[in-house]
Amino acid sequence: MHCDSKMLLIRSFNIFAHITDDEYEELGLEHNFIEAKKGDYIYFQSDYHNKLYFTKEGFIKIGYIDDGGNEVIKEIIQKGEVFGQITLEKNNLNGEFAKAYKGNVSLCAFTIEDFIKLLHQKPTMAIAFSMQVGNKLRKVENRLINLLNKDVKTRLINLMLQLAENNGTVIYNTASVARFLTHDDIARLIGSSRQTVTTFLNQFESMQLLKITKQKFFIPDVKKLLKTSPVS
Questions:
Q1: Is the pLDDT reported for residue 132 higher than 90?
Q2: CATH 2.60.120.10 domain range(s) in the chain
Q3: What pTM was estimated for this model as a whole?
Q4: CA 158 – CA 135 distance, rounded (Å)
Q5: pLDDT per residue over 96-122, tens digit each?
Q6: Does the structure show a pLDDT above 50 at 232?
Q7: Average pLDDT of the chain to the nearest whole number
Q8: Assigned CATH class of 35-146
Q9: Does position 224 have pLDDT exceeding 70, yes or no?
Q10: What is the per-residue pLDDT across 34-70, written as a single tens digit (0 to 9) for each?
């Protein structure tokens, strides 16, 4: 990747948006870029891992392998999100893996030590990073509450709306979600089965609460769809 392209890439992240050319050179950020092909592991159940990653392009599947050898999906990372050692602690991923999903990905990676030095040099960046991590932790908390307290139908609706909000595709009372997840992936994310997910999606479509194309799910009336969920 050309140096100018790398500089544009790093500045696309909010916390790096105000880096000057001189600071870019001084901090040596051109050495922090990673590109991975679809299916490649960024890391896999590493016993020693001390990096965090910012996602420029593509999707990253975060998960682990359970005792039965099954893949469990924890979350799907999208453009602009951070993953890895976001608490800036070493070796706390507990068997987690990160894998390029659906296509090639572009990342900016830092060791914990280098990133902490960077935050010391740029206090405004530290504030922006803490806000980004706080937002991520709130989403994790909301997803956990969703899994523990909501029925499957509500979990499915909430996931679709969260994905739409993450991509800025909620407009007034409508929402759209790109179809980058399979029914099986959706089922794993909401703690259900592929068959149940398919049944509910077909039900929503038959009730004209959802329009399904090869490219996306479109929700023409968000409030009406939400009213189909039991009050919990």
A1: no
A2: 35-146
A3: 0.77
A4: 17
A5: 899 998 888 988 888 888 888 888 888
A6: no
A7: 83
A8: mainly beta
A9: yes
A10: 889 999 999 887 656 788 898 888 899 998 888 888 8
| Residue 208 CA, distance from chain mean position | 29
Q: How far apart are CA 24 and CA 4, in angstroms?
A: 11
Identify whether the C-beta of residue 90 lies closer than 8 Å to the C-beta of residue 30.
no
CA 54 to chain centre: 10
Over the chain, what HEC string results? CCHHHHHHHHHCCHHHCCCCHHHHHHHCHHHCEEEECCCCEEEECCCCCCEEEEEEEEEEEEEEECCCCCEEEEEEECCCCEEECCCCCCCCCCCCEEEEEEEEEEEEEEEHHHHHHHHHHCHHHHHHHHHHHHHHHHHHHHHHHHHHHCCHHHHHHHHHHHHHHHCCCEECCEEEEECCCCHHHHHHHHCCCHHHHHHHHHHHHHCCCCEECCCEEEECCHHHHHCCCCCC
Beta partners for residue 42, in sequence order = none
User: Where in the sequence of the chain do the CATH 1.10.10.10 domains occur?
Assistant: 150-226
CATH code at 150-226: 1.10.10.10
